[in-house]
Write a structure and sequence with these properties.
411 residues; 36% helix; globular; alpha/beta; 5-stranded parallel sheet; disordered N terminus; 13 helices
Length: 411
């Protein structure tokens, strides 16, 4: 059971890597490997948000990572090529309470105090944004689960790998394709001003303008926005055919609540997270709130064939439910998928220094298909193997959810 304390530590390692491996400011940290005699387990340091606006996404993602760790430990641990043996996995985790300020302190603590072997970011771009410079400064490879902000990935930073989603600048490709195909010329967009949503807006607007479509409304609002009534009224006054809201789950919930209360009807309404967390929306707003809403369907609504590493979707849903008593959603799959990428990295790397781990990821990039799709990164560490389709959700009064894909779901 997860502790309510913000500094709860899960499974502190019996033997921690040296500061040189963790990259605690040493210029040689990326080239020196620890002695295999000193390693009794692999420590994975991460954060989770048990409270605050990101809790509903962070906790299932964290639980998915823990599920992965329990699975490998049941089989004797993770195989580490550099050690030529299996060793147990231990997770060291702290509660950042959805606060970037708190997260900044705790990421640093994982590196400089706990000396973890592997560093994993918390959910999303807001909580990942503070980890990126810390990891780079300390020469520590950051396994970025779902922080998809395009600005995180640069030619000068080799210390980041995006594991479970494409960079957010790629997300709107399918959405723009569908809007153009449908001939929608009056499109209204409201987006939250964070790395995740802002980069999507930039890509979407750019692709629309390339097709000679200029949005009739395009407005950025703070990520903390909880009331969309006035914004919806302003959008409705532009007489749009399609209304696009780009935000985090709390933004989507508030937007759909305001839409229902307004009585406005548009040919198309799109929000991001009903395709990832449908149960959250059913519980918060009721089945009618997402009926006929367009979204990016993600596993388990989207299932990939030809999985060649780890559990497939059906196997994961069954095993996860049996072990945790909870139903799987995309974020629990994302956490599990991050574990798989770490596992493959350790199986592949010739050394445990951080740049060797990064080189190993590049080595198997493009050859791995998990329940989350094709894992492939570019030279900057951004995930480019997956594409997010657009789908239209249908719900029943009993809360059953299905999706009709309107763009190709192939990764």
């Amino acid at each position: 059971m997860i502790s309510r304390k913000s500094t709860a530590v899960l499974g502190i390692s019996a033997a921690l890597l040296s500061a040189s491996l963790a990259g605690c400011g040493s210029s040689s940290s990326s080239t020196s490997a620890p002695s295999s005699q000193n390693i009794k387990d692999i420590t994975i340091g991460t954060l989770y948000a048990e409270s605050g606006p990101f809790a509903t996404s962070s906790m299932p993602e964290y639980n998915g990572l823990k599920f992965w760790a329990s699975q490998v430990d049941k089989s004797g641990g993770v195989f580490v090529k550099a050690l030529n043996k299996k060793v147990p996995v231990k997770i060291v985790a702290y509660n950042d309470q959805s606060s970037p300020t708190t997260a900044t302190t705790l990421y640093s603590q994982l590196i400089s105090v706990n000396h973890v072997n592997v560093l994993v970011a918390d959910f999303g771009s807001v909580l990942t944004s503070v980890a990126v410079p810390i990891a780079e400064e300390n020469k520590m490879l950051l396994f970025d689960q779902t922080g998809t902000g395009a600005s995180f990935f640069t030619p000068s930073n080799p210390y980041i790998v995006l594991t479970s989603l494409p960079t957010s600048g790629l997300w709107p490709d399918s959405l723009a394709q569908y809007l153009i195909k449908k001939g929608y010329s009056r499109i209204a967009i409201v987006y939250a001003t964070n790395d995740f949503d802002q980069s999507q807006d930039q890509t979407l607007v750019s692709k629309l303008k390339a097709a000679n479509i200029t949005p009739v409304y395009n407005n950025g609002v703070p990520t903390s926005t909880s009331s969309y009534s006035v914004l919806l009224n302003n959008m409705a006054n532009t007489h749009p055919q399609a209304v696009i809201e780009l935000g985090y789950p709390n933004n989507d919930i508030a937007f759909l609540q305001a839409l229902k209360a307004s009585g406005d009807h548009f040919k198309m309404v799109f929000t991001i997270f009903p395709g990832q967390l449908p149960q959250l929306f059913l519980t918060s707003n009721g089945p009618s709130s997402i009926n006929n809403v367009y979204t990016y369907p993600a596993p388990p609504l989207l299932s990939f064939s030809h999985v060649n590493y780890g559990l497939n979707t059906t196997e994961f849903e069954s095993a996860y439910k049996q072990q945790t008593g909870q139903s799987a959603n995309f974020l629990s799959i994302a956490g599990y998928n991050t574990g798989l990428i770490i596992q493959k990295t350790l199986e592949t790397a010739n050394s445990l220094n951080q740049l060797s781990l990064r080189h190993a990821v590049s080595h198997f990039s493009g050859s791995l298909t998990t329940l989350d799709g094709t894992f492939k990164i570019n030279s900057e560490g951004a995930q480019v193997g997956e594409t997010l389709p657009v789908g239209k959700i249908t719900t029943t009064s009993q809360g059953q959810v299905s999706v009709k894909f309107v763009t190709s779901p192939n990764s």
